[in-house]
Request: fold
Amino acid sequence: MAPASPTVARWELVLRLRELREQRGFDSATFAKRVGFTAANWSHVEKGRRVLTGKTIGPVLELLEVDAEERAELLALLEASKQRGWWAKSAALIGPELQRLYGMESGAQSIRSYDSLVVPGLLQTEDYARALISADVMIRPVQVEQLVAIRMRRQERLRDSDPIELTAVIGEGTLLQQTGGPKVLYGQLEHLAALIAELDTIEVRVIPFAATAGAVLGGSSFHLIDFEGEQLPTFGWAESTVFGGAVDDPEMVRDLSFAYVRALEQSLDRAESLALISRYAGV
Reply:
């Protein structure tokens, strides 16, 4: 079972409350008034921007006529959502959106990712991460080492008691792009090859230059995070040069899932990808 994550608990709680409200036939504004919220404040609750308390959730559960078993589950989620994940300690540095991503990663069962020109953060070496982070003009030099440490902290999910399953699709150009210079790149490729060989929970698939539709997704980067609980849908995250954020529209998450399948179809299999990475690494 994946580790408990307050971010995931809060997300599941608000999704289930919203589903129950809709099943009971309440529109958001009417429901908010009946349980003592303004329409705006209840909207913040359902979007996960405001946290319920033991006192404020009581009228909500009463109006929704939740039975004893489900009531206990929802109250347990509320209690779990109040905990502080390790990422909360860096709130001033990484902001709410990245806190949400790291919280989702922490409680995930599996991740599917696509990156055209960089190794995904969960698989980066310190030197490779430092090269990428220090090149970002929006990041102050004094913040670089703190952000590198956060990136390394995220990677603990790869080796914990119930390791996350990661399937990463990358372009062959990633294996040639001189991020940080030749020494840093070769160290990264050696690390990548070693991880793939050691952990069967990690799969890296390379889209070769020879793939006839290899550029179909261009320079995009996105991640699809899945959970053990049946109540939770896939969480989507997309990045560009100046934007990184959650994809909350279910249809867009579905489209990203289709795009991921297309990328996977263009990639080499596990053994072929490992062989290519090892060749570029000279190992």
